[in-house]
Design goal:
Blueprint (H helix, E strand, L loop, with lengths): L4 H18 L1 H14 L5 E8 L5 H7 L3 E9 L4 H8 L4 E4 L11 E7 L8 H9 L2 E12 L5 H7 L8 H10 L3 E7 L2 E4 L3 H10 L12 H14 L4 E4 L1 E7 L1
Parallel strand pairs: 1-2, 1-4, 2-3, 4-5
Antiparallel strand pairs: 5-9, 6-9, 7-8
Helix pairs in contact: 2-3
The structure holds S-adenosylmethionine (SAM).
């Protein structure tokens, strides 16, 4: 399905207060991405983080990496407060990550759990590649087609995910050298289907649908979920990539 930055912005803005407590998979990918990145480089002149959100990754970066200058970006204006909370001297660039103006090329572009919102990841990576200096690094996590497969099965709603092979092909075509690329499968268990909907809402993922569901639709979803997936688990399929330019 097509994603609309205005809807994404609205839904994430609503989820900000609950996000950090509920974003357990995003927390895992942020930690793992940083520990893998450290194997290649820990010192950067200029770093750009795309999709800062509530600063879940920013906080960890502040405790891990060395850099001279940090730029943080998000669609949501309020993200600036989170960025400055962890990195007071950072600069905030508000707007669509694929349309922003950056002052100069970056040695590291980093992003956690955000690129899945691009309608076309290939085009997105093409644009982002232009933000990175020669010998710079791109580190990101996103999700592959099995992500939320239960939701896709029941509602038909899904994002335009790319597979691990497709992501690797795109990066190779753009001239990147893949330093690390690993896909994971994680399941979160819930005690009832309403909790699954609440989990999605609290992590901003109800941006999948612009329309508010009425009681009948929610009941239909819950009944189908219990029937088809009685173990009440939700699949996440994150992928982490570190690539050199
Ligand atoms: C799942 S949150 C991830 C936040 C944070 N990176 C983390 O590690 O938890 C996705 C964030 O990306 C932002 N976002 C989504 N699409 C964007 C775009 N095209 N440009 C800039 N920010 C975007 C959303 O507003 C949201 O804050």
């Amino acid at each position: 399905m097509q994603t609309d930055p205005k809807t994404i912005k609205k839904q994430f803005e609503k989820s900000m207060a609950d996000y950090d407590k509920n974003a357990v998979i995003q927390d895992f990918t942020a930690d793992k991405m940083l520990s893998e990145l450290l194997r290649f480089n820990n010192n950067f002149d200029a770093v750009l983080e795309l999709g800062v959100g509530t600063g879940l990754l920013t906080k960890k970066v502040a405790n891990t990496l060395n850099f001279e200058k940090y730029f943080g970006n998000d669609l949501i204006e309020k993200s600036e407060n989170y960025l400055k909370k962890y990195l007071p001297s950072a600069d905030f660039i508000c707007g669509n990550a694929l349309k922003i103006k950056i002052p100069y090329k970056m040695n590291l572009v980093i992003s956690n759990a955000m690129f899945q919102w691009f309608d076309n990841l290939e085009k997105g990576l093409n644009t982002i590649s232009e933000y990175i200096s020669k010998d710079g690094i791109l580190a990101f996590s996103t999700f592959t087609p099995d992500n939320y497969k239960e939701i896709r099965d029941i509602t038909g709603l899904t994002l335009n995910y790319m597979s691990k092979n497709e992501i690797e092909d795109v990066l190779n075509r753009l001239g990147f050298k893949i330093l690390y690329c690993e896909e994971f499968r994680k399941n979160i268990k819930f005690s009832n289907p309403l909790e699954i909907l609440a989990h999605m809402k609290k992590t901003g993922v109800n941006s999948l649908s612009e329309k508010v569901w009425d009681i009948k639709k929610i009941k239909g979803f819950c009944d189908k979920y219990s029937q088809k997936y009685p173990e009440l688990s939700l699949t996440y399929s994150p992928i982490i990539v570190i690539a050199g330019k």
